Amino acid sequence: MIKSIIIEDQEPAQRILKKYLSDTNDVELIGVFRDALSALDFLKQNPVDLIFLDIHLPKLSGMDFLSVVSPRPQIILTTAFTEYAIESYEFDVTDYLLKPFSFERFIKAVYKVKKQLAIEHVDDKQEELDKNILIKVGHDHVKIAFADIMYIKADGDYTQVYTNQKRFMVLQSLKYWMDKVPNKNFCQIHRSCIINAAYIQKFTSNTVYIADEALPVGRVYKKSFTDLFEKLSQ
């Protein structure tokens, strides 16, 4: 359900928006405000997905509201004035409804919001996938954060994943892990070991120390390790 509020000082315009919303699926109206300052106070404790915003408001204009509200939800401007259209899109508003607008035009604007929120939801899910991984441990699946992994060592057909809390034995190859871990901090330093450079305590030309564990640096991996460390030091 999309949570929305109306910021509009004119009663007739409020009534139209509330009527249109009552005939719309998936959008819940949780507040109506006559001025933007009252809406800002409400938003501090009540995050919303969508705001129907008039431009000519008392105390604080709709355009000034856009410049200060953070985080900024989806915005549908509702106004009788065309001259703010270009300026409004500088604030990345979702749509611009000129009064009086029909229910059909209203629905088109809401549909744009739904599409944009769906895209954001996909992005959030991808970000979650980029930060974490599910591993199978015995009969269970355990979610671990890549940031918690200190190093990974090959152990026959298995790999041992050492996190900052515990160790996991996983039936996956080291190559599998190289394809999964983020490129930013992770580096293979030996045919049997991948490290997270964020956990390095110290290193020599041949050895990396993580959590007091001495991990050998293979000759063919020295350059990639050195390149990573120099990049992180910049």
Count of alpha and pi helical runs: 7
| Strand segment tally | 15
Rounded radius of gyration (Å): 27 Å
Low-confidence parts, pLDDT < 50 over ≥5 residues?
Answer: none
* Helix and strand pattern: EHEHEHEHEHEEEEEHEEEEEH
Helix content: 25-40%
What is the end-to-end distance?
Answer: 45 Å
Instruction: Report the sheet-strand fraction.
Output: 25-35%
Largest sheet: 5 strands, parallel
Shape: elongated
Mean pLDDT: 86
Structural class designation: alpha/beta
Task: Give, in spatial order, the strands making up the sheet with the most strands.
Answer: 2-1-3-4-5
Give keywords.
elongated, 234 residues, alpha/beta, five-stranded antiparallel β-sheet, 7 helices
Structure commentary:
The chain is an alpha/beta fold and about 230 residues long. It is about 35% helix and about 35% strand. It contains seven helices and 15 strands. It has helices at about 10-20, 35-45, 60-70, 85-90, 105-130, 175-180, 220-234, and strands at about 1-5, 25-35, 50-55, 75-80, 95-100, 130-135, 140-145, 150-155, 160-165, 165-170, 185-190, 195, 200-205, 205-210, 215. The strands form four sheets. A five-stranded parallel β-sheet has the order 2-1-3-4-5. Strands 10-9-8-12-11 form a five-stranded antiparallel β-sheet. It is elongated and about 75 Å long. It starts with a strand and ends with a helix. The model has no long low-confidence stretch (mean pLDDT about 85).
